[in-house]
User: Fold this.
Amino acid sequence: MLEIKQADFEKEVLNGGKVALDFYSTECPPCEALAPKFEGLSELYGEEIKFIKIFRQENRELAESLDIKGSPTVIFFDNGKQVGEKLAGGIKRSDLIRNLDNMIAPDKVKQIKSKIKPIVSEYDTIILGGGPGGLTAGLYLCQARINAVLIDTMLPGGQVSTTHQVSNYPGFIDPQPGFMLAHHMSEQTKVCGTQFKVAVDVTSVDLEKKNVVVDEFETIHAKKIIISTGASPRLIGAQGERELKGNGISYCATCDAKYFHDKEVIVIGGGNSAIEEADFITKFASKVTIIHQFDHLQANKEAQEKAFANPKIEFIFDTEARKFERHGAGVKVDIENIKTGEKATLKTDGVFIFIGMVPNTQMFAGKLETDNWGYIKTDEDMRTSMNDIFAVGDIRSKKYRQITTAVADGTIAAIAITKELDS
Assistant:
């Protein structure tokens, strides 16, 4: 693998045949997660494709000319022409492989794949999910000298990393940016000694054998498993929603609000997340219309008062969205008043949906006892209905789901596991 500077770009990339080019930065967790994958694939594909790294912070002019907006970003070249996808952020091994395979002949791909040897890794505890509950469990386990590995299909932090501000986490007088709080939690656990395998594909989970297969070739086995896979935004289920997800409809204000500077958006929902995120969006948007199915908001009083006092926010109550449709660069939303049946169509630049969450239990559906809403039942030590399997955080059946309750869950599970392993 080669590292270059801007002056080498023409020789090594534009005239370099088939090239995979990684723009990285320092103090960049996604870059750290990508590095071993990029290096490992260079050993497999290196005879066919040149793997090159370039330090983005010292080569900004080149990065800007290639429309590189973040780190890491991997782009692919074939005889001087950019090909394939531009990959950025939490880049998965499978994303890289897909693009690399498309650059070479099928017989070469088959030959390379034959070199991939399955491996087995052994740990005391597997933590599935890197939100606050999983990170806290990892911290307590490593401090107890328990050999633990944290596995996440994304980067560590969970929903906290996409929350613009956290104002109620103990120890901080001022509200904290969610991504920084998540970063501090992640780094503390990593420095302590818990191993991280993040931005990976989880191929399979076998709770009975306590095996987790990642990236199709590595089987990770442990004595205990902590499930901390959290929850995902609930979809409305209206026509056109799935088609426009990520292309006009968003579920993350921190991620996407910045793209609506001086534009008008719709926010759907009336709970804490919807109202707090709507207020955040007004830092960018010129107008936010909140659509809520009830005649009053469910958010806490402080959030409500702030929203009602915000001149950029308007409200439509007793109303639900029925259909989403592309309208030029924006979105057309068909709505219906659920009391009167009156229908209308709104045109907007974008839509944000915050109507609750659903548990991420797809990998082990039907294996563990759950409540009526699909959340995993546990005892007071976070043990599930299956021996040696624990559940913490938002995936767990409980009354309140907060960062602080997830942290408490992770603490309890780690202490219980430590006592069992030490006995």
